[in-house]
Amino acid sequence: MKVYEIDGIAPVVDPTAYVHPSAVLIGDVVIGPGAYIGPCASLRGDFGRLFINAGANVQDCCVMHGFPGSDTIVEENGHIGHGAILHGCIVRRNGMVGMNAVVMDNAVVGESAIVAAQSFVKAGMDIPPRMLAGGVPAKVMRELTELEMAWKVEGTGVYHDLVRRCHGTLREVEALTAVEPDRKRLKLPELKTLKETRRAKA
Question: CDD domains in the record, alphabetically (predicted)?
Fold first, then answer.
């Protein structure tokens, strides 16, 4: 990871968290136990404090930042999808922000709520717990089903396992020049897309 101090304040990373070497942490950033920070994530605590709490994941190419004096918070088991932007907002415990979504200043994603991919959550919006919000601008659409809630928890669990896998086996190597015979596959627990999960339960 690339870690920078500013104005005498350095990032804090719990030893059990995993931060990819290409991620950038600047200033007032606090990463809690078992959290995952993906490749090319940019966490800029040069204006306000960034909290990534226990078991949360901030995936590849995400950006976290905020206005001067603001806190940007991902609570325990928060799940921030690829390419999302969080700016001066709060994602409550077990909340999820979908891929390439934007959550603006003083917005709150409620506990176990989900923001759909590519949505724009306006400044100050309050998404209630266990609700789905989506669109540009985002609107609260409906309550999440028990199946959707379970699917989200399962997906976050895969990232908890990824932290362990990264600590145990991730290392920089030279690329192979050809596919080896009988190339092995990753051995992972089965995880279906939400659409496949709905179909299997129907």
Answer: LbH_paaY_like
Segment (H or E) for 151: helix 146-169
Work out the number of other CB atoms within 10 angstroms of the CB of residue 195: 8
Does the pTM exceed 0.90? Answer: yes
CA distances 136 to 66, 86, 110, Å, are 21, 16, 19
> Going from the N-terminus, what domains does the chain have, and what CATH number goes with each?
2-143 (2.160.10.10)
How far apart CA 43 and CA 160 sit, in angstroms, is: 20
- Is residue 136 a contact partner of residue 119, using CB atoms and an 8 Å limit? yes
DSSP state of 88: S
Largest pairwise CA distance in the chain = 56
Please tell me the distance from the alpha carbon of residue 50 to that of residue 117, in angstroms, as a whole number: 22
Residue for token pair 């192979």: 176
Q: What is the pLDDT of residues 119-144, one digit of tens each?
A: 999 999 999 999 999 999 999 999 99
The single residue listed with the structure tokens 């690339």 is: 2
Determine the Cα–Cα distance for residues 62 and 120; give it in Å rounded to an integer.
Answer: 15
